[in-house]
Amino acid sequence: MLQIPNYRIEGLIGEGGMGMVYKGVHLNLDRPVAIKVLHPLLVKEPQLRERFYNEARLMAKLVHPNIVQLFDFNEQDDVLYLVMEYVDGRTLDKVIGREVGPIPHTRAIPLIRQILEGVNYAHEQGIIHRDIKPSNILLTPKDIIKITDFGIAKIAGSKGMTKTGTKVGTLFYMSPEQVMGKEADQRSDLYSIGVTAYEMLSGKMPLDDGTSSEYQVMDAIVHRSFPDPRSYYPDIPEWLVNWVMQMIAKQPQDRFHSCKSALVALQSNEQQSTPTSVYVGNNSAPLPVSKNTQQSVSLNPSTSTTRPKVQLKSPWIAALLSLICGGFGLFYVSAVQGFLGIAVGIFWGLITKGKGAFYLLWIAYPIWGFMAADNFNSKRIQQLK
């Protein structure tokens, strides 16, 4: 059984060409971790060892909510290992292939946004991932993205450690310039994110028919255009299809120049395609605002240039206010007119359900006031006579 100082190994999480990943627990902190032990063949290569050390130092600088954090890196008895944040979730390729198939765009867009934010942060630190793909992206039960394996695949070569004749999973997400052996930059990561987004939205890995050889796949990446993702899953907005197609453009200069610009374009198009709602009154559904008038409508009542009308929700409030008006008439005029005012007030409050109660109030007071004054003056004149 594997022994790692200060950690208790609880079980094997997974195994691949690069090595094995174990779940462990820090003995003193009681913190769950993921321990990735590199393949012995990599440990015995001096050039790969040195480059892996450099990559590990860079990964230690990456502290971002959407990136799996590196806690420790060490070598013990010819075992080279990384201690990383343990993520309770599953890889994105399993979500696409086994759980939901195509991910609806309303759910996929926030996930793509998180991928862009995480990779953009790495780019700002001078790190190019070079191996973005769904199997390197973890998804938590709360739909939080965690990107992993920064720089590891580049050390092993673009094909990874696979048996001769087997299909390489990374190949489908490689940019044309990587396939042609050119230097990868930020736009290469953008291409891989675009292919990942394509697969998320369509449920299909582009250019993978299950029969093509590795050479045929590489030739298709360089020369063949991807099919419209709506041919696999039609419920994808046109603006989002255009965004994905720009991400996976063959020439780097035709793509977005950075994750930040891709993120801005994604958010801008999303906002323009989502109708804004305005609340128009009691028990009314929100009404969509057209794109042409959206900018002129204020959604904040405190900043609106039009003062909202005052409406009372309870009919009994209106009835009470009218009752006061009726009482005013009863006291100053006569019992008949007072009771009539009370009846009218209650009836009006019930019929209008509170709407226009203030109008009745301000109309009723002057009327009864005038009647009261007229009645008072008539009695006073009679007394003087």
Flag low-confidence runs.
153-169, 276-313
The CATH class of the largest domain, by name, is Mainly Alpha
How many separate structural domains? 3
Shape: elongated
Q: Supply the helix-strand structural class.
A: alpha+beta
Could you tell me the mean pLDDT?
77
CATH topology of the largest domain: Transferase(Phosphotransferase), domain 1
The level of helicity is 40-55%
Strand portion = 5-15%
CATH architecture of the largest domain: Orthogonal Bundle
Q: What is the N-to-C order of secondary-structure elements (H for helix, E for strand)?
A: EEEHHEEEHHEEHHHHHHEEHHH
Our measurement of the CA-to-CA distance between the termini, rounded to an integer number of angstroms, reads 120 Å
Number of strands: 10
CATH superfamily of the largest domain: Transferase(Phosphotransferase) domain 1
What summary fits the major beta sheet? 5 strands, antiparallel
- Please give the order of strands in the largest beta sheet: 1-2-3-5-4
Number of helices: 13
